[in-house]
Amino acid sequence: MDDLRCEQLVEMVTDYLEEALGAEEALRVNRHLAICEGCDNYVAQVRDTVRALGNQPRELPGVAFEDKLRTIYRSWLTKRVDG
Amino acid sequence: MTGVDLRALRRGDEAAFSNLVNAYNSSLLRLARIYSPSREVAEDAVQETWIAALRGLDGFAGRATLRTWLCRILINIVRRRAAAESKTLPFSSLTDVDHAAPTVAPDRFVRTGRDAGHWASLPADWSRLPEDKLLSVELQEIIGDAVATLPAPQAIVITLRDVEGWASEEVCDLLDISGANQRVILHRARGKVRAVLESYLAHELDNA
Fold first, then answer.
1. What gap in Å lies between CA B6 and CA B17, rounded to an integer?
2. CB contact under 8 A, B29 and A41
3. Residue A26: CB partners within 8 Å, gap ≥ 6?
4. Is A47 near chain B, with CB under 8 Å?
5. What is the CA radius of gyration of chain B?
6. B184, B99 in Cβ contact below 8 A?
7. What's the start-to-end Cα distance of chain B, in Å?
8. pTM for this entry
9. Do B193 and A49 lie within an 8 Å CB cutoff?
10. Which residues pair with B119 in a beta bridge?
11. Which residues in chain A have Cβ-Cβ distances shorter than 8 Å to B162?
12. Which of chain A's residues have a Cβ under 8 Å away from the Cβ of B140?
């Protein structure tokens, strides 16, 4: 009987979530998750971590930066017309 | 990407440029910060990127996505700067990943006997947390700090994949690495950030 250890599963979790495991290995993982609360919680934690990363606030530049960008654009336009 | 009209941009429509910047500036800044922790230097690199992008706009054929194209420009700028300063870049070690080190501390698992390799103490059930806990400003700061302490290749991959939401293929294309290589890097990065969150949330769960 195939007995996947939790210590092995945690190192497979990224391939698992990326659907990069072979069908057989994915099945082993799913079987294990169905009976192992620890690993089920662990995989959920990884999913939550990914979700939380996706909620990182946008990087906002300072006002000086936005002024500089405007200058960059206008300067480009000018060269374009002349060039 | 809605709202970005390259034709209008080429015609001199400043609103089109605004839209372009709004769409991609945050991603470029985030990426630049990984290479240069100094905000000033990072903003400088992003400005140079926009200058180069406008200059090269006519040559953008749409083979790569716009954001891949922009990020490539940024990375080249950062590389040129690093070379000029005789610095080695994070990317040079992109394939140098420690495969051996586990992402979960070995002492979390039973070491001997019939249950060897199984959890010694179960990972917590985070669904027990208050709903808004994972969205809180404090948690986001902790995540941001965690990513900032990652080795650069891990910071780059986890930022592009999980923070910015790029597809695996796009990241591999930009960084010129294999899918397998990318997954190993992502695996290590996620492992570290999860561990940081676990520590932080352990307190919250004790009080839940």
1. 8
2. no
3. A16, A19
4. no
5. 20
6. yes
7. 42
8. 0.89
9. yes
10. B109
11. 49-50, 53-54
12. 52, 55-57
C-alpha dihedral over B188, B124, B127, B205, to 10 degrees?
A: -110
Q: Is residue A2 less than 8 Å (CB to CB) from chain B? A: no
CA distance B76 to B67: 14
Predicted confidence (pLDDT) per residue in B13-59, tens digit: 888 888 889 889 999 999 999 988 788 899 999 999 999 999 998 88
One-letter amino acid for residue A51 of the chain: R
Q: For A46, name the nearest residue in chain B, comparing CA atoms only.
A: B194
Whether B51 and A76 have beta carbons less than 8 Å apart is answered as yes
**CB contact at 8 A, B190 and A42:** no
Residue labelled with tokens 């910060």: B33
Note the ipTM here: 0.90
| Mean of pLDDT values over B134-140 | 91
Q: State the DSSP H helix or E strand holding residue B183, giving kind and residue range, or none if neither.
A: helix B179-206
Question: Can you tell me which residue has the tokens 């561990």?
Answer: B195
CB environment A24-43: b (16+ within 10 A), e (fewer) = eeeebbeebbeebebbbbbb
